[in-house]
Design goal:
Elements: E1 4-8, H1 15-27, E2 32-36, H2 43-52, E3 57-61, H3 64-76, E4 87-89, H4 97-101, H5 108-120, H6 124-127, E5 128-131, E6 134-137, E7 144-146, E8 148-151, H7 152-165, H8 172-189, E9 202-207, E10 211-223, E11 244-250, H9 253-265, E12 276-281, E13 283-288, E14 291-295, E15 298-302, E16 308-312, E17 316-319
Parallel strand pairs: 1-2, 1-3, 3-4
Antiparallel strand pairs: 5-17, 6-7, 6-16, 8-10, 8-14, 9-10, 9-13, 10-11, 11-12, 13-16, 14-15
Helix pairs in contact: 7-8
Amino acid sequence: MASVALLSNPRSTGNRALLPQVREYCAAHPDIFHYEVEDVDQIGEAIRTIAMVSPRIVAINGGDGTVQAALTELYSGGHFGGSPPPVAVLPNGKTNLIALDLGAEGDPIKALQRVVELVHDGRLEDHVVERQLIALDRDEGRPVLGMFLGGAYLADVMLYCRHRIYPLGLPNGVSHVLAAILGLFAMILGIGGGRLPPKPEPMTVSLVRQGEFQGKFSLLIVTTLEKLLLSIRTGDGPGPNGHMKLLATESSVGALFRMLGATWRGTLGQKPLDGVHFQQGDEIRIEGERSNVILDGEIFEATGGKPIILTSTQPVPFLRLAA
């Protein structure tokens, strides 16, 4: 029996330079079962194999897309008899949103050391936290599970950053800031396409029991994490209407700056803001002519009149690495 099962994706950003150190660390700790995949399509077989060694913790060493694929297999594949062990996420991708929310930041090797330390010290229970997952129904096969979804113009800017900025080889932080500046510039001037992100497209967002709203949005976020982008804290538990938190900002400069101002003051969600929607729910529908969304690194699109349907899962265990 392995104490820790580590799933690594060598193609994730951080692993291109760090993986030799990860292998060396695992070689020195025989109670770590290390499984490497070359493609996300191999994660299903990886989780099946990991289940055979009955680890106390499954640690994921990859980007948000790797985490999303692993969570889907862990909680939909039935490999652990319906009770997978807690998941630890190492900070080794471009955005690391899930890892940061769970207290893992900085050096992935130190985060792995922290996981091993907690297992050996018998303090796992004190650091296990529960999170609901977002289940995205694709109307084909089983739902995809994740924890952070970006949509509307935000998804367009994220895709623009991925395809146009990342290839420049700039540091991740610089790439994100540059993409945000160019996206804001295009939105202020009402232009898009070409060398800039595309213009926002109309979409409709519906929350069961709370009605719907529609328009063009510069920002659409659905998450079960405690924090959204820009370190917006959303709270530890569900609101009166559900577990998923939704933030949508209409594509006007005024609405965007009202949202940013409320974020700066720490008052976002405490009172209504014109053009800013901050709600919670257990089922959310997104539809439109071109409604790209990105769930933990994977792209989905509402096409042919079929909406994207999001629901929240039952609580699942994660390992918080913060002291």
